[in-house]
Amino acid sequence: MDFTYIIQRSAKRRKLTITVERDRSIVVHAPEGTSDEKIQQVVESKRQWIYEKIGHPQKYQELPHAPGKETVSGESALYLGRQYRIEVIKTDANEIQFSQRFLIPAKLAKQAEALREWYIGKAKEKIVPRVMHHAHQLGVDVAMVKIVDNRYRWGSCTVNDNVNFNWRLIKAPMFVIDYVIVHELAHLIESNHTPRFWNIVRAQTPKMEKAKAWLKENGQLLEEVI
Question: Is the model's pTM score more than 0.85?
């Protein structure tokens, strides 16, 4: 076997699954007590699938890393697919305001987490209702929706019908967010990337190809704090 993988065992997990993260790392999620030999057998049986995932051009294309920015007046930050100007203002307010630009209290400007927390709040406000909308349209039941901090995955679903979405998605256009949501929900119907799976996603998100292209071109920009 000419690749390495990380094993994560959990007492709550009932089924062994393999994920290939966006940094090409391979993670095996296994029920507690699963032997190394059993895991190796499963990984070996999935060798071709793993190679396909590692080489997936949409998911792993190398992109130039965007330069880091600071929360200073004149800079800009990405939100729902558009760049908006940052203005640092003197105010007694303790939170960031948004009105076609980011108004950041001076006392928060040097706190790297301030804008991140704003993004997370907006992700919960806008992404969760979209998940429920698409779940209704697809006729699937979702146990729980979580906004998570997972740098290398845009979304995931669990064996318990929970779905998780990366807070960084809130920087993408809504048609891209919809695509990622439907992609994960479709896994509740069809677990693998079969022709049926892609037909489900395409039917629910007509801009699927445009969304995949946007992520291919701009995915790394979403991973910047600003």
Answer: no
Confidence (pLDDT) at 94: 84
| Residue 156 CB partners (closer than 8 Å, separation 6+) | 19, 150, 163, 164, 184
CATH number at 112-222: 3.30.2010.10
- Helix, strand, or coil (residue 21): coil
With tokens 């979580």, the residue in question is: 146
Distance, CA of 185 to CA of 88 (rounded, Å): 39
Query: Of 129, 125, 93, whose CA–CA distance to 108 is shortest?
Result: 93
CA distance to 8, 187, 189, 194, 216, per residue, from 182 (Å):
27, 9, 11, 15, 18
pLDDT in tens, 108-163: 877 767 888 999 999 999 999 999 999 999 999 998 999 998 766 788 887 678 89
Please report, for the chain, the start and end positions of each structural domain, with discontinuous segments joined by +. Answer: 6-60, 112-222
